[in-house]
Each structure stands twice: as C-alpha cells, then as structure tokens.
Design a protein that fits this description.
The complex is a heterodimer of chains A (481) and B (392). The longest helix of chain A is centred in the N-terminal third of the chain and has 38 residues, at 69-106. Chain A folds into two domains: 6-179, no CATH class; 186-399, no CATH class. Chain A is 73% helix and 0% strand. Chain A has helices at 6-21, 24-40, 48-66, 69-106, 124-139, 148-156, 158-161, 169-172, 184-215, 218-221, 226-257, 275-279, 284-302, 306-324, 328-354, 362-384, 388-399, 410-441, 447-468. In chain A, 42% of the residues are buried. Chain B is α/β, with parallel strands linked by helices and 392 residues long. Chain B folds into two domains: 1-26; 38-181 and 254-389, Rossmann fold, CATH 3.40.50. Chain B is 49% helix and 10% strand. In chain B, helix 2 runs parallel beside helix 9, helix 4 (111-121) packs across helix 12 (373-389) and helix 5 packs parallel to helix 10. Classes of the chains: A mainly alpha (481), B alpha/beta (392).
Chain lengths: 481, 392
C-alpha cells in the first residue's frame, strides 16, 4: 500500500481518529498493530523478517547490557553479524548470484539463481541500518535497557518503515509514550506535509518519470544528443528529489498527525554550495547515520592523516552507493560523490595553506556552487542507467563527444526547465508559506476564515492535483533501496 | 469534544471544496478566458461531432483496440473483396474548421470515412486504425497483431508518414491488451530479442502489461476480492477502493480535469511564449532513430505476413513550415524515399496537396496537422485516385 494510494489516504482518517480516541497507554500497542498490518499489505510473509531481525538484535543487546566488559564485544559482534546476515541475504543475494552465475557459465555449470528465487522485503535497507545503530548505541551505553516491544516498535513504526527517515532509537522511543494531547495545530502541520508530499509525488515526480524511463532505455540512450542527455540527467535528478522528498514529507506529516516528530530528510539539496553541503541537505538522516556510525569511528582509528581520510571517504561513499542498490552503477555513483568530497577537502587544504583570502571570495564560492550542481547532476547518470555502456555513452556525450539536436517532444524540455525553476524558488515558496502561517498565528488573518475556509481550500486544490495526476504505475523510487 | 467537532468541520470543508472544484471544472473557464483574451476561434471549430462507425473505424482511439478488433472481425466475416487498413495520427480522425466554414450540423466525415465509403461501393473495405500522436512503435505493435490474426489481416496496409510523428514514442496503455494473444506475445518477444533500437520500448510495454495482469489477478473476477494469499492484501484493497470511488458521480472526471489543465498549460505555452505546435523544429537523435527502426521493422512484419504495405506522405499546411532547416527537410525525405525504394513500396505524396485556405486553425494559429471540411474532401478525392493508380 503506497503512501499515495487512495486506500492508504482513506484508511488514514479512521486510523488517526482511533489513535486519539484511545487511552494513551493503549496507543503504543495500537500503533504497533497498525504498523504490522501496514507491512503485511505488501507481503504478509515478510512480516517475519523484521520480527526475526529484532528478535536477534534484542537478544544480543540484552546480553551485551548484562555482560561484563570483556564479553560485551562478542555480543556486539553477534548482533551486528545477525543484522548483516539478514540484510546481505535478502538485499544482495541476487547481485551475488548474478555475478556467480556469470562465472559458472564460463565453466558450463548450471545457474544458481532459480534456487533462491525470493523477493526483497521492503524497507530492509532502512530498518537494518536502524538495527545496527541500536547495537552501536547499546555498546556505547547510550541505551540502558533493551525491551523487545520498544525495539520492535522503533523498527516497525509505519510512517518511517519503508524508506526512512532513518531515526535513532533515543530520538524516537521517548515519544512512544504517546502522551501528547490532540491539538489542531499539530494536525495541520501533519496535513501540510502530507498534502505537499502527495503533490510532489504525483504532479512533479511522476510527470518526469515517463520521459526519464524512455530516455534511459539502452537502445534509446545510445542515440541521445548532448542536450537530451543533460536534460535527462537534470530530469532524473529532479524526479528522484521530488519522489523521495515526497515520501519523506508524507512520513513526517503522518507521524506528526499522531504527535511524533521525525527528523527532516531534505533541505533544498540543489541549493548546496559545495559537495559536503549537498550531503548535509540530501537524505540528511542517511548522511547523519554514515557520519556518526561509520565515518567518525573509522577516522578515529586512522587519525587526521589525509591519505587514510580520503581513502575512507571513497570507501564509505562506495558503500553508500551499494546500499542504494545491488549494482555497479550505484557503486560508481557513490565513488563519484566520494571523489567530489575528497576534491573539496584537498581544495580546502590548499586554500588554507596558500590562498586564505579565497575563503571569502564570491567567485570561488560561485565556482564551487556551479561545480557541485554539474557534478551532482552528472553522477545521476550511472545511478539511473541500466548498463555501464549506457553510462559511458551518456557521460561521453555530455562532456566531450558533443552531438547537437533534440530528440524528444518540446514539452519534455519545457517541463524540465519549469521544474528546475520551481526547485530554484522552492526556498522562497517555503518561506512564503511560513509567513502565511505566522500571519494566521498572529491573528492577522481572521481565525475562522483561515481554519475553515482558506486552509481547507488550499488542501482541496492540492488534493485535486493529486487526483488529476494519479498514475498507479509510478512507484516510489526509494522503495527499491 | 470541541476539537473533534472542529476537525470534522475542517475535513468536511476540504471535501466540500474538492467536490466544488470537480463540479465547476475551473480549467475549462481558464481556457475559455485565455481563448477570448488572445482572440482564438470559437471552440466549435474543433469539431467534436464526427462520424463514428465501429465497422470502419477503431473507435476507442487506442484505448481498447481489442474490443474494436472483435467488431472488425465480425464486419469482415463476409470477406470483402479487398481489405485495406489505414494507420495514422489524429489527422485521420479530426476536423478543424477553417475561417468561414459554417458550424457542423451533422456528423463530419474525415477523408478516411469518405475513402471507406468509396471502397464499400466497390465491394472492398477500408478500416481506419488511428489514434492521436500514434507512434511508429505503436504502428509496429498494431501491424504485428494484424499479422497474426487471419480474420482481420488486411490485404493492404496504408501507413501515414508525418514529420512530427517521428518524435512520438512508446506504447499506450490501452494497446497493451493485444499481448493477450499468444502469437502476438511471441512475436513481440522475438522482436525484443533482436535487440533493435525499439526493443527496449517493446520490453517496457511487456513488463507493464505483466504488472497490470498481476494487479488484475489480485483483484479477482469482476472486481471481487480474491481469496487471501500469502502475498500482501494492499493491492486488493486498493483495487476495491478504486472500484468504489469510480462509482461516485463526478469522480471519473479526473482525466477530463487533467486534460483541461494540460490544455491550459499548452495555451499558455502558445499564447505567452509563442512556442506553438507550428514552431519549426529539427528532429534527430534517439527518438527519431527508434521511430525509423520501428518503421523498418513494420515493413519486415508486413513482408513476412504477405501484407502489401503502402506509405503516404501526410499533407502539411503551407502556412506552417515544419522543418527548421533545409537539412531537416532533406534528411526526412531521404529516409522516407530511401525506405520506399529499398523495399519497393509505393510512396504516395500528398505533402503539398491541400491549399492553405483548407486547413483549420488551432487556438489562434494555423493548424499544422488538421484539415478543414474542404481539406478532407480534397484529400479523399486525391487519395482515391492515387490508390487506384497504384492498384491498391
């Protein structure tokens, strides 16, 4: 059941209403039941996967918390190994088998793929990371006691179950007392995000999807011109941003409607001025997870020497790529971002040493801004392209082997330009909505007009566009990861 | 309790506004206002009252051809002396009145309708298999289906060539159901395996068809939820909810609202930024390469099935030069003439057959594609003569 499906939106009304009608002590069990039922809408059998994962992690964490200092490491490793075992089995089994089958084919052996024909449980990449962070927090004594129901609800909490935001145990579980009193402002904040997410998904992301799908098809992509390839890369960058930001907005909005605050996941990423800033604006909860649970521990071990630091950046970003999907295109995407980050670090070092004045130079800042935008856009090509050949062909055409002309309907270029413009002014739109909200809060708009007339009208227009642009064939891109 | 009442009132207000927007169809008004503001011809000049005849036309316009073909099979069961199918885009099915032509009083006939009447008088049958912006991949799709169905296989397939059409691509959703025919599916899969430029588009269509079939299977027969299975029940609930919502009066107008909204954007594009459908353009690159390959393969399909293929250059409006450069014009004609010559196909040329006065207007600019009432008459007569001359 997708967040933008009619059934989900209609079911949300009684689910939220019943939540608030229940006594606070019942609410956590109710939310857990709803979360399990929600996961079962995709595949009932896969409900067992997070249950198994949590069972193993809880057992390891309990033993770790009770164990003497010298035995803690063994329990920690057992917990992490359990998560990785399930994660790797379900997520990368096909990738490993495909590569193994290719090798076996050389020796005339039968492929193994059919013997392991199983689906991938949705959201496994996200809840595995949360389970790992739980084990690390337990080891570092940031978690004092391990209760299965807390862990299970932390992982299963339905608004963030499928595609994040990736939350920390200690920022989510304290909210599971569900003791807040219902108030309209909270509902409105949630509805704002939900309706905005529905719009971003159906109107913005899906409108670009058809062209992007066609333009990246191997047979088609090889004949693309330079302008086609740049437009396709920009269009996919916009599509994936709108798509994932839509999902995150809906997740945050629905959680807010039941009084739970989830962390933000996007902050106008294409406005980033440098590659590191891009990662502080794009999929922010993943960046935070990588920084806290991977980058800091790895670099604490190696110290501040530039060589190991750069290598660790490249390695970690390659892993980030692989986390997105079992394919070499994702790895290349991660490595490219690693290169951008290393390049910026080198630049920072050189600048501080030789040209400190450049740290306030507007020209240098603009140069990095333009580089970041171009580099991030180009990196979407391997992320989206189906084969290495398509990636090579498209990037060559974008950066060297120029071919002129246009291949697609003029509407494709116009809509991509229009959505790019939207992206450029998005912070202003957001600020405008904030000002309108503040004006209403300060009483400069008559409350009844705002609450019962204007705001419902704005929601209705949003829902109208959501319904008009409904296309069931377009799934959330990040559900695959 | 007060808060609960307020929340209910807010929800009711949202639903009330939404119902009002569905009822009012605001984009229709916006379109009318834009047309008035920029001096467009009245809406009746884009004729909606056109002749509809399921025996001589694919009336679903690509949305449900399977049903149309069942009708065609019945219509052709008497085995007419000569069976011709004409494939083309909206030029074959729309009438756009020129300045001075009176409003339609009876259903208008397109040139294809008039040709069908001519053939019927000579114990033949001409069937129009058209849809708006029909791509060459879709023509290949149709030709493959016709080739595996002896009951509707034509003797002659008349294919429209049109410069703008080379930029269209993909297989529309309604046409996917043709894959339910096992031979059609087999042929399409063979085509995919050939690794032709259009193969990925066909493969995408097959995947989409399979996805839809799985979703339909989840819903069970006649919309009833299927028996519970180990797989998720979300898809079945969604199908059920959609089925119920479709019964709510007015809810089905979503598509019309979207069309009206996109037309509004199109008007803005034309009126404000002067990017009209009449704008000259250079076509090249990926899309054109795929379209050309699909057309070549269509010729192969016809040759293998014993269908005589004939091509014709669609008329173009003298007031609307389509080619941005002389090179565009040359490249297009080199390809079409080359295709005909290589394969020994008749190529009928109607590109300059309709005078400027016999073309319609779209918004407030000359229509680049659609003929007026007189234009259709002229083309029908010229085409009938040319077909006869070529023994078609």
């Amino acid at each position: 059941m997708q967040f933008n499906s009619y059934s989900y939106i209609l079911l949300l009304i009684p689910v939220v209403a019943l939540f608030w009608a229940l006594p606070p002590s019942w609410r956590r069990w109710y939310v857990l039941a709803v979360s399990i039922a929600y996961y079962a809408t995709w595949n009932a059998a896969f409900v067992a996967v997070p249950l198994l994962l949590c069972g193993g992690v809880q057992a390891a964490a309990s033993a770790l918390l009770a164990a003497p200092e010298r035995a803690r490491r063994a329990w920690f490793r057992a917990g992490i190994a359990w998560v990785l075992l399930l994660f790797l089995f379900f997520r990368y089994r096909q990738f490993l088998l495909d590569n193994l089958d290719a090798a076996l084919a050389h020796f005339g052996a039968a492929p193994l793929t059919a013997a392991f024909a199983l689906g991938v449980p949705l959201g496994i990449s996200f809840y595995s990371f949360e389970a790992i962070s739980y084990m690390i927090d337990a080891k570092q004594a940031r978690i004092k006691e391990s209760r299965f129901s807390n862990l299970y609800l932390f992982v299963m909490f339905w608004p963030h179950l499928m595609a994040g935001p990736i939350v920390r145990f200690r920022e989510l579980v304290p909210q599971f007392g569900f003791s807040k009193r219902f108030d309209l402002a909270m509902l409105f904040r949630g509805l704002d995000r939900l309706v905005w997410g529905l719009l971003l998904k159906n109107v913005f992301a899906n409108s670009l999807g058809g062209w992007v799908d066609e333009g990246f098809l191997p047979g088609v992509a090889r004949a693309n011109t330079t302008l086609d390839n740049w437009t396709l890369a920009v269009a996919f960058g916009l599509q994936i941003y709108f798509d994932f930001a839509a999902y995150s907005n809906m997740a945050i909005g629905v959680a807010q409607m039941i009084g739970v605050t989830l962390p933000e996941n996007f902050r106008f990423p294409y406005h980033a001025q440098t590659p590191p800033e891009f990662w502080s604006r794009w999929h922010m909860t993943l960046s935070r997870w990588i920084r806290d649970y991977l980058f800091f521990p790895v670099n604490a071990r190696f110290g501040a020497a530039p060589g190991p630091l750069y290598l660790s950046l490249l390695g970690i970003m390659a892993l980030v790529g692989l986390w997105h999907g079992a394919g070499w295109g994702f790895v290349l995407w991660g490595v490219l971002h690693g290169c951008y980050l290393v390049l910026y670090r080198i630049w920072e070092g050189v600048r501080e040493k030789h040209w400190p004045a450049l740290s306030t130079s507007r020209a240098a800042a603009w140069a990095w801004r333009i580089f970041t935008l171009i580099a991030v856009t180009a990196a979407w090509v391997p992320f989206r392209a189906a084969t290495a050949g398509v990636t090579a062909h498209m990037l060559a055409s974008m950066f060297g082997r120029f071919r002129f002309g246009v291949s697609y309907s003029v509407n494709f270029y116009l809509i991509t330009a229009l959505f790019t413009l939207f992206c450029a002014v998005e912070p202003k739109l957001s600020a405008g909505w904030g000002r309108l909200q503040s004006a209403a809060d300060a009483g400069r708009l008559p409350a009844p007009v705002w609450i019962f007339l204007l705001r419902p009208a704005i929601y209705a227009v949003g829902l109208l566009f959501f319904l008009m642009f409904d296309d069931r064939s377009m799934q959330f891109i990040y559900f695959q990861f | 309790m007060i808060t609960l009442g307020r929340t209910a009132a807010i929800l009711a207000a949202v639903l009330g506004w939404l119902a009002a927007l569905f009822a009012v169809q605001p984009f229709d008004y916006a379109n009318l206002a834009l047309d008035r503001l920029f001096g467009a011809l009245p809406p009746w000049t884009q004729v909606e009252n056109v002749r509809v005849d399921a025996a001589t036309q694919e009336v679903s316009r690509g949305e449900d051809p399977l049903r149309s073909f069942a009708t065609l099979e019945r219509a052709w069961s008497g085995r007419p002396a000569r069976r011709i199918i004409l494939m083309g885009n909206s030029q074959t099915q729309m009438v756009s009145l020129a300045k001075g032509e009176p409003p339609p009083l009876a259903p208008e006939k397109t040139y294809a309708d008039q040709l069908a009447e001519t053939y019927a008088r000579e114990s033949g049958a001409l069937y129009r298999l058209s849809a708006g912006a029909l791509s060459y991949e879709e023509m290949l799709w149709y030709a493959t289906y016709l080739a595996v169905n002896p009951a509707i296989k034509p003797d002659v397939l008349l294919v429209q060539l049109n410069y703008q059409n080379f930029v269209n691509g993909g297989i529309r959703g309604g046409m996917l159901s043709l894959l339910s025919h096992p031979d059609m599916r087999r042929r399409i899969e063979e085509q995919i395996l050939r690794g032709r430029p259009e193969s990925p588009v066909l493969a995408e269509a097959v995947r989409e068809y399979d996805r839809r079939e799985r979703a339909a299977a989840a819903q069970g027969p006649q919309g009833a939820p299927a028996a519970a299975s180990a797989a998720g029940w979300g898809e079945r609930v969604e199908a059920g909810v959609r089925g119920e919502l479709d019964r709510v009066p007015g809810f089905g107008r979503r598509a019309a609202l979207k069309q009206s909204f996109t037309l509004m954007l199109f008007r803005c594009r034309t009126y404000l930024f002067h990017i009209a459908p009449t704008a000259r353009r250079s076509l090249g690159g990926a899309r054109v390469a795929v379209s050309r390959a699909a057309l070549e393969d269509l010729a192969d399909v016809c040759a293998r099935a014993g269908i005589r293929l004939a091509l014709f250059q669609a008329p173009t409006n003298p007031l609307v030069p389509l080619y941005r450069t002389a090179g565009d014009d040359r490249a297009y004609h080199e390809f079409t003439n080359g295709l005909a010559a290589r394969r020994g196909l008749p190529l009928l040329d109607f590109e300059h057959s309709i005078p400027a006065a016999d073309w319609g207007m779209t918004l407030n600019v000359p229509d680049p594609l659609h003929l007026s009432r007189a234009g259709h008459r002229i083309l029908a007569s010229e085409m009938a003569a040319a077909l006869k001359q070529n023994g078609l």
